[in-house]
Amino acid sequence: MLATRAKCIGILTSGGDCPGLNAAIRGVAKPAMSDFHIEVIGIEKGFRGLVENHSRVLHLQDISGILSLGGTILGTSREKPYKMPLPNGDTIDMTSRAVETYNRLGLDCLVCLGGNGTHKVAYSLTKQGLNVIGLPKTIDNDLAETDITFGFDSAVTTAALSIDKLYSTAEAHLRVMVIELMGHNAGWLTLTAGLGGGADIILIPEIPYDIDSICQHLTERRRRGKWFSIIAVAEGARPKPNLLDKDKNGKKKKKDKKNKEKERERDDEDEHEGRVSTGVARAISRRLGMDTRVTVLGHLQRGGIPTPFDRVLATRFGTYAAEMLAEGKYNQMVCMKGAEVTSVPLEKVAGRTKLVPLDHPLIRSARRVGTNFGD
Ligand code: F6P
Question: Which residue among 5, 43, 108, 302 has its CA within the 20 to 30 Å range from the CA of 362?
Fold first, then answer.
């Protein structure tokens, strides 16, 4: 009788790190090894590790005590096999090397923990004949086909608590404190943290802002005796396109000297000249004479330990993936729909971004409590 070969899988983390990656690795690997007798190989440094075969067999002791650990024990990178950077700045397609490593290691499936870029690569690898399972992680929460990604709650917690801290200085100095949060082209993080932190104004990419409307809101607050304000700005937030720049046929107007001067002032406030937060703060100072300060939270919101919510979510996603591995259910991304963990075909996720719908309940709630969106 032919002996059946035990399964062997690879696991990697790719894209920006986030809290919960280690909890997810543990969630996949522990049941895979203990319950389903699957050999688990850790691929290091994301897809670069797959291309260059940086791998090691994981044992139970490797994944012990990592539930609450930030970062990723496997390391990560943003590199994609079909676009590997060369020292001279060019890129090269090394997909065949990734496939080679997969075959050399004798993998039955590759589990990829990542965000949008990772799932695009994951899907492309299925087209090369690889079996892949994706797990949705990102602080941006912008992956299609899942209600939530792990890492998001931890980032929201850090960001909301940071907004809390800005209140004392805002109130003491009667300042406008502008805090810039991450989120790439989506506003989930800023919307949720802004609402949770009680920001007076929230600016997200999905709702282009008008600086006049922001100033009007601040003036109105002053009239009501509120001389300080907190503005939460997403890094991807953008101003409304300026209609005055176009003539009645929609063509760009020629600029006279006066217009040029105005344009220079506006450019100075424009996010394209630097960070969106700086542009917004400058415009407020110039127009209202208010004292403003900018805080860019940066990678502080992506680092550190996962919240208990993210530990649980990552564990649920991971253990679900382990069950899929045992069943041989491949080429899917594990996801959350309502309260249920389930999975969707990778092709439904690849290349799509989940933005905040304008009628989202969080936006409605925020407006109800007087939050302004600069629109
Ligand atoms: O996708 C996660 C994220 O933190 C985004 O919010 C942000 O735009 C980006 O990564 C920053 O990337 P990096 O750490 O490579 O600068």
Answer: 302
Relative to the CA of 115, which ligand 1 atom is closest?
A: 1
Judge contact between 277 and 179, C-beta under 8 A. yes
What is the tens place of the pLDDT at every residue in 298-332?
Answer: 999 999 999 999 999 999 999 999 999 999 999 99
Q: Which residues are catalytic?
A: 140
For residues 190 and 85, give the distance between their C-alpha atoms in angstroms, rounded to a whole number: 32
Residue 166 near residue 179, CB atoms below 8 Å: yes
DSSP 80: B
Give me ligand 1 centre to Cα 142, in Å: 12
Asked whether residue 78 carries a pLDDT value surpassing 60, the answer given is: yes
- Long-range (24+ apart) CB contacts under 8 A made by 266-275 are 266/242, 269/211, 270/239, 271/237, 271/238, 271/239, 275/180, 275/235
Report the nearest atom of ligand 1 relative to the CA of 236. Answer: 8
- Cα 351 to middle of ligand 1, angstroms: 17
SS3 340: strand
For residue range 34-57, list pLDDT tens digits in order: 999 999 999 999 999 999 999 999
Contacts for 251 with CB less than 8 Å, ≥ 6 apart:
none
The reply to whether ligand 1 has any atom less than 6 angstroms from the CB of 183 is yes
Q: Is the CB of 332 under 6 A from ligand 1?
A: no
Determine contact, residues 33/26, Cβ cutoff 8 Å.
no
Q: Is 139 in the pocket of ligand 1 (CB under 6 A)?
A: yes
Phi-psi region of 144 (alpha: psi -120 to 50; beta: other; left: phi over 0): beta
Burial of 287 (0-12, 13-18, 19+ CB in 10 A): middle
Edge-to-edge order in the sheet of strand 132-136:
55-57, 39-43, 8-13, 109-114, 132-136, 332-337, 340-345
Instruction: Report yes or no: 150 and 139 within 8 Å, Cβ to Cβ.
Output: no
Tell me the CA–centroid distance for residue 183 and ligand 1, in Å.
Answer: 7
Strand partners, 42: 11, 56
Quote the Cα angle for 243-248-253, to 5°. 65
Distance CA 9, CA 29 (A): 9
